[in-house]
């Protein structure tokens, strides 16, 4: 009986994970259509941007034909989508080189920046959220709530500006621009990216800490927690052994949302600090109307978000038997 129940539970979990995966693929297809349509609505194109305002209509038309911009929109979408599926996102209209090569030089920088930020933000957010929940209604809880709420309310560009004024202008500890290169040592690299990491961490820690606190408090009012307290279980053990396994679903979802922000929402931070990442590359693609590059960058951000949310769903399903039963 136990083996049959276990098999049934695993089967239900696999079916639910399969549905989540199929839903993610459908979402990615719809997003690809939306990205393509929005990209086509932008005024001007790469041919006009490359030739400038002084170019004649004949010159612009000839370059548009050479770039393939005069083909019907459905044909261009089908060609681009088939290329994305096969791993070839096309040719950059401005750099005149494969989009994959342009992205490959920037993507590792964004991934490394996100990983370093997550390495700092996740433990800090969990500690703040759990500590605030364990002191619910107390002075520590109120102080942390006010602090995190203030951090969420402050926009990234203001955090970056304050950080530059404090650490670069006044204290002169850190550079105001993220100067990074392959020849740098780890110490030089960390000093160069300290400002972007600090700016990103402020928002990520605040969001994740507040959602962690809410998830833990929601479980603290359950009967099984009261029973554990009556049995004399230490508060730390109650949280780690009883509350966290049941609160893992919303906490992991909060982490996934925050980490997806590190990839897709870092546009402002990368632009302010001139960090050579994928987000700043997408901004340059918008400016130059390099549609294949813009569309590929947007799809990468969307795919990263969906993958993180899928991982969060799978983790929640495997960690919580009640979700499998549903």
UniProtKB/TrEMBL annotation:
Task: Tell me where in or outside the cell this protein is found.
Answer: Cell membrane
Q: Describe the location of the ABC transmembrane type-1 domain by residue ranges.
A: 107-312
Q: What SUPFAM superfamilies does UniProt report for this protein, alphabetically?
A: MetI-like
Assigned keywords, A-Z: Cell membrane, Membrane, Transmembrane, Transmembrane helix, Transport
- The UniProt record lists the keyword Transmembrane: yes
Q: Which domain of life is it from?
A: Bacteria
Source organism (scientific name): Sphingobium cyanobacteriorum
**What membrane topology is annotated for this entry?**
Multi-pass membrane protein
Q: What is this protein called?
A: ABC transporter permease
- Annotated membrane-spanning segments are 21-42, 111-131, 143-169, 189-209, 251-273, 293-319
Q: Does the keyword Transport apply?
A: yes
User: Which family is this protein grouped under?
Assistant: Belongs to the binding-protein-dependent transport system permease family.
Q: What InterPro entries does this protein's entry cite?
A: BPD_transp_1_N, MetI-like, MetI-like_sf
């Amino acid at each position: 009986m136990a083996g049959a129940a276990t098999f049934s539970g695993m089967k239900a979990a696999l079916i639910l994970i399969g549905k989540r995966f199929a839903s993610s693929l459908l979402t990615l297809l719809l997003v690809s259509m939306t990205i393509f349509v929005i990209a086509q609505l932008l005024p001007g194109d790469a041919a006009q941007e490359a030739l400038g305002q002084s170019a004649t209509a004949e010159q612009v038309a000839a370059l548009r034909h050479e770039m393939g911009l005069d083909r019907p929109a459905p044909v261009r979408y089908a060609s681009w989508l088939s290329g994305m599926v096969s791993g070839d996102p096309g040719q950059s209209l401005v750099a005149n080189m494969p989009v994959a090569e342009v992205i490959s030089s920037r993507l590792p920088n964004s991934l490394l920046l996100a990983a370093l930020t997550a390495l700092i933000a996740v433990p800090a957010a969990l500690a703040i959220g759990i500590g605030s929940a364990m002191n619910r209604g107390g002075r520590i809880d109120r102080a942390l709530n006010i602090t995190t709420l203030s951090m969420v309310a402050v926009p990234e560009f203001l955090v970056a500006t304050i950080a530059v004024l404090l650490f670069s202008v006044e204290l002169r500890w850190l550079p105001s621009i993220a100067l990074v290169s392959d020849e740098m040592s780890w110490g030089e690299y960390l000093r160069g990216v300290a400002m972007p990491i600090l700016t990103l961490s402020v928002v990520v820690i605040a969001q994740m800490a507040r959602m962690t606190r809410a998830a833990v408090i929601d479980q603290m009012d359950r009967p099984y927690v009261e029973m554990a307290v009556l049995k004399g279980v230490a508060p730390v053990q109650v949280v780690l052994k009883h509350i966290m396994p049941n609160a893992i679903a919303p906490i992991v979802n909060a982490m996934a949302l925050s980490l997806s922000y590190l990839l897709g929402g870092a546009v402002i931070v990368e632009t302010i600090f001139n960090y050579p990442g994928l987000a700043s590359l997408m901004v340059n693609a918008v400016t130059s109307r390099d549609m294949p590059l813009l569309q590929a960058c947007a799809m990468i951000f969307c795919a990263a978000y969906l993958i993180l949310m899928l991982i969060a769903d799978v983790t929640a399903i495997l960690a919580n038997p009640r979700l499998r039963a549903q």
